[in-house]
User: Fold thermospermine synthase from Chloropicon roscoffensis.
Amino acid sequence: MKEEKGASLMGAKRLWLEEEIQDDLRWLYSVKSILHAEVSDFQDVELLETGPFGKVLLLDGKLQSAEADERVYHECLVHPALLHHPNPKKVFICGGGEGSTAREVLKHKSVEKVVMVDIDKVVCDFCEKHLEDNADTFKDARLELIIDDAKAQLENQRDGEFDVIIGDLADPVFGGPCYQLYTREFYENIVKAKLAPGGVFVTQSGPAGVLAHTEVFTPINRTLASVFPRVVPYLQHIPSFADCWGWNMAFKDGSEQAPLEAAQLDKRIEARVAEGSGALAFMDGLAWVGITSLNKIVRKSLEGEKHVLTIDSPKFIHGQGVKQVGF
Amino acid sequence: MKEEKGASLMGAKRLWLEEEIQDDLRWLYSVKSILHAEVSDFQDVELLETGPFGKVLLLDGKLQSAEADERVYHECLVHPALLHHPNPKKVFICGGGEGSTAREVLKHKSVEKVVMVDIDKVVCDFCEKHLEDNADTFKDARLELIIDDAKAQLENQRDGEFDVIIGDLADPVFGGPCYQLYTREFYENIVKAKLAPGGVFVTQSGPAGVLAHTEVFTPINRTLASVFPRVVPYLQHIPSFADCWGWNMAFKDGSEQAPLEAAQLDKRIEARVAEGSGALAFMDGLAWVGITSLNKIVRKSLEGEKHVLTIDSPKFIHGQGVKQVGF
Amino acid sequence: MKEEKGASLMGAKRLWLEEEIQDDLRWLYSVKSILHAEVSDFQDVELLETGPFGKVLLLDGKLQSAEADERVYHECLVHPALLHHPNPKKVFICGGGEGSTAREVLKHKSVEKVVMVDIDKVVCDFCEKHLEDNADTFKDARLELIIDDAKAQLENQRDGEFDVIIGDLADPVFGGPCYQLYTREFYENIVKAKLAPGGVFVTQSGPAGVLAHTEVFTPINRTLASVFPRVVPYLQHIPSFADCWGWNMAFKDGSEQAPLEAAQLDKRIEARVAEGSGALAFMDGLAWVGITSLNKIVRKSLEGEKHVLTIDSPKFIHGQGVKQVGF
Amino acid sequence: MKEEKGASLMGAKRLWLEEEIQDDLRWLYSVKSILHAEVSDFQDVELLETGPFGKVLLLDGKLQSAEADERVYHECLVHPALLHHPNPKKVFICGGGEGSTAREVLKHKSVEKVVMVDIDKVVCDFCEKHLEDNADTFKDARLELIIDDAKAQLENQRDGEFDVIIGDLADPVFGGPCYQLYTREFYENIVKAKLAPGGVFVTQSGPAGVLAHTEVFTPINRTLASVFPRVVPYLQHIPSFADCWGWNMAFKDGSEQAPLEAAQLDKRIEARVAEGSGALAFMDGLAWVGITSLNKIVRKSLEGEKHVLTIDSPKFIHGQGVKQVGF
Assistant:
C-alpha cells in the first residue's frame, strides 16, 4: 500500500486504537492518521496509518488486515490449498472483499476463473481504490466479483464446479450471520457438493495459539473431519492479530500425500506460481513444514475435540481482531 | 468552529487520545477525525474532532483548547481584567496565538489597540485558518500580531504603555522557556513597568482544584502579591482540562473596589462589551461572585503560601493538559 | 483512613483502574494495592490504594468515595441542609452505607437521632471495619442503621417525623432501582409528607459541570421545584469524580432567607457544629457563596429546564463515577 | 502455581496492567489481585492474579512468566539443548532465579549437578516461596544456587566444566547490565571455554515474530555463528509475551545431526526425561520440527544478518515484556 494524503500526527503515542482481544485482554496500537473512512449498509470501513503495523483496514473498528503482515495471513490461506490441488482452474472465494485473497489466487498460472462473493460492495470498492497492492487484482479478467451472500451464491453454482473453495469469512460470532458457514450442514451440503473431484476446501479457522486454539480452531477441524476424508490443520503467528491464526484444509477425495513435503511444495511453487518463489514472501516448503508440524498441546486438543458444529450446536468466539470481510 | 472535511470514524470508542494529567492520572477521550496537522519549529499543531469536547486544538499532543468549553476559559482570562479597569484602551497579550484571547479582548468597545506576541507563526496561521470563530479576530485592524518572544517584546515597549497585560502562556514546566514569565523578576521589572497607571495584569495560573491548587496557583498568587498592592485569585472548572483552572489578577495601584460586586460587573458588561451580555456565554456578575468566592481549602493554602517564584527558585508543574500557546 | 496492610506495588503507572465517565471519555488512575474486597448480594465492594486519590471505595468497580476529597463531597451534601434548618433534631438518610454522610450529620450538636437506611449490609459492615474515619460514626448511639430499601422504610415512618432528609443515593441509571427516588411521586408523596414543618430535603443530583449539568442536575431541580416552594441548587468540583457535582436543597415551607449569607452561615457553624469551623475542611460562609453563585450557562439551563421526572418519564445518566451506596 | 490468599477483585475489566511492547504498541491484561509484592536491591518483584494468563510474575512491572504459558517458554529453552547433548551431567544456568529453568533441567535423569547463578536473592526466595510448581526444584540436592553476577561466576569455573550452559537472562536493553552476556567476547572467552567437549549452549534470544525478529534474534544468531561451528535458531509463539520468542542453540564441536529428527527426539525424551513424554506439555519431536522449520521471512533475515554483537557494537531492544530474571 502506498503512502496517501491525510492529516497526520507526527508524534507517536498520542492516538491509540484499542482492540479487545478478549474481554480481559486488550491490544493498543498508535495511530498516525485516518486515511479514508466510509460507511456501508453493513459496517464502517476505515483505513488508518498506524505506528506498528503500517496501514490497517478496519471493519467496525476491528483490524482485518495490516500492511505489515497481511501477506503472511493471505499466503497461508491461499497457497497450500492451490498447491495441494493437481491443477486448480476454478476457484470460489467466500468473502474476500479486501482483494488480497484473490490477489494470491491469481498468482497461480493454472487459474482460469475466480468467483469472489462478498456481501459488501462498499468494502470492495474501498479496497480496490485505496489498497494499491490489490488494484490490479480487481481489474484481472479472470476475476468475477459478485456482491451477494456467499452461501446463497455458492448454493446456486453447479455441483462439481470448483477445484478450490476458500472460506475468507468473519469468525463465527454470536449474533453474526457467519456462523452458518462454519457448520457441518454447510460443509456437507454445499461446499463438498460444489467441489470438483479432487477438490480442496480451505477456511480460516480463528485464533490458534496455545491458549485460544480450542475456541473455534479445533471444533472447525473436527467438523470438517466429519465430512471430508482428510483434513490438514495448520497455524502461524500473525503479529497484528495478537495471536497465532489457524486454517483447516480439507480434501474432497482424500489425499495420501497431504501435507506435501517441503521439496515437493517448493517444486510446485516454481512451476505454477507466476515469477516462482519470488512472488511469495513467507511461504515455501520449509515454512509449510513449520506451520503444519503442530505442537503437543494443539495436537492433543485436536485429538480430544468432540464438538461437531451444526446449525443447532454452533460455537461462538469473542469476535474481536478477526477477519470480517464478506459473508 | 465549523465542521470541516476529513476522514472521520463513525464509531465511538475506537480511537483514544490520552492525556497524562499527572503521572498517575490519565484522561482519555475518543477521537473521530484528524482535521488538520502541521509541524512548526516549536511544536506539532493539530486540530482533532473528538467525542466529548468537539474540535480540540493540540500542541505537542496536549489539549490547549476545546470547542466545548474554550469560551469558559477565555472569558475568565480576559473579561475580569478589562472590566476592572476603568477604561482599557491598550492591551498586551503574552502568547495567545490561538486567537481566542484577542477575540474576547476585542469585544470591549473601549479597546483601541491589542498587541499580541506569540513565538509560533505556524500556530497563529493554523488557528486563523482553521478556527472559524477566530477568523475575524485575526483580521481586526486593532490587532497587531508580532511573532517573537513575548518577554523580549514586552521589555522593548515604552514604560506605562498598557492598560491591561494578559499572560496567556504555557505553564511553568521543567525545561520549558516559560518559567521566567512566572517570576517576581518578570512581574516587577517588566510587567509592572509597562502597565499604565491604574493598569491591570492577569495571568492564567495553572490547575486550581482542591487537590492541585498548590502546584503553581498559590505560588503565582504569592509572587504577584510581593510585587502588586492588590491581587485577586479566582478559579473555575474547565471540563476538557480535567480540573478547575486558576487565574490571578493584579492591580498596579491597588483597587479598593476589587473584586467588583455582581451588579457593578453586570453594568459594566452592558456598557462596554459589544452586544452587551449577549456576547458572553459564561461570565456575568453572579458567575464572577462564584469564581472569586473561594472555598476554605484553597483560601487556607493561599494564606499559608510562602513561595515567591524567582529565577533562582522557580516551581514547575507536571505540565500536561495546560495552555502552551506562545511564550 | 489509615494505612492498611496488603501486597502493594511500589512502581507507579503499572496498574490502572479505568472509569468510563461517558462512553467517549475515560478516567484512569493508578492503583498501588487492593486493600480489601468483598462481594455482597448487590455489588462488589472494594477498597483500593490509588496514586492520585489515596484510598478509594469502589462499588461494582465504580469510585464512590476517595480519601483525597470525600470530605468536600460530604460536607456539601450535609451541612447546607442542616445549617439552613433552625434546629435539626431528627435526620433521615436514604442510602449512605459508607458512613460519611452520617459522620457529618452527627457533628451537629442539635441532632438527636439519625435514621440511615441502606440496602447493603456488606457495604455498611465493610466501611465500619475499613474506613477508620467512620468507625466512631457507626458506634454513635444517635445512629439507627436499618438494612432495607430506603423508599419502603421512609414510607413507613410517621408523617412529619424528620427535620432533614438526605438523599445519598446512586444516580438514576437505566435498569437500576434508584430512579424512582428521583421522581415527583417520591418527592411529593413520601419526602414532603415525612418532613416536619420547616423541614429541609437535600439530594445529590449528579454531574453539574458546564457540559454535563443538564443530564440530571437540572431535571432534578425542576422536579423538586414542582413540589417544594423553594429549591436551592449548588455545585462544586470533586476531582476524583472528574467533574463538578451538583446538589439540590428543597424547603418544605419555603424559606425567605435561603440561601443564607456568608456571615450567617459562619455564625451557625460556630454555634451548632461540634468543635465549630475547625470540624469542617471545605465549607464555610464564603465557600457557600461560591458554590451557590452559579454561572450563566448553568443558570440558563435551570431556567429553561422543562422536564419533571416522574415514574412514567424518568431520565437516566450514563451512570459511571457516581454515588451508588444504598437505595 | 496454586491459588493463594489476597484481596481479589471479582469483576473483570476493572484493573489493567499495561505493558509497553514497543513505544507504539501496548498490551493490557486485567488483574484480579495482587498476591505478593516485594522490593529487592535490583527490582520490584510481584506476583499478580490476572484474567487471561493466570498468575504472573513481574519484575519492575514487566511480565516475566505466566502460569498459562511459562511451560511452553521453559520447555523450549531447556529441553532441546539437553536432548541434543549425548549425556548431559553438569548444567550451568545464567540467571533463572524464577526456578522454572532449573525445574525443567532437573527432569533429565542424567543430570548430576546444576549451578544456577542469579544476582537477586529476593527473586529466588520469592519464587521458592510463592511459585508452588517450583518449590521442589529449590530443594533438589542437585541444584547449587549462587547469588552473584552470572558472568563473574561462570568465568571462575574450571574450563571444560559444563555439558550444557543456558542463558536465561534479561534481553540486552540500553543501560542494563545484560548486554555483555550477548556479545562475541562473552561467547568466545567464557561460554565456549567453560563448555566440555561436545557441549551445548542455548540462550533466549528475544522476540522472533515476522516483524520483530531482526531486533536481537538474528544478531545473536550471527554472533554465535562467528564463535561456534553450528548454531540452530528456533522460535515459538508465547501468548503472554504478545509475540513469538526466539532461542539459539550452539554446539561447541559442531553437530552433524542437529537439529534432531522428530523420531530421534521422541526417543531421547522417553529414555532420558523422568516420567518420559508425560513430563512435557509442549515439546516433542513434531513440535521440535515445527519450531525449527523457519519461514522464508525469518530465514532470509538470518542469512542477511551481518551484525556481530561485541562490547563495542552492541544492540539493544525496547526491553519490555522480556525475561529479566538474573544477570
Observations:
- Chains C and A do not touch (no CB pair under 8 Å).
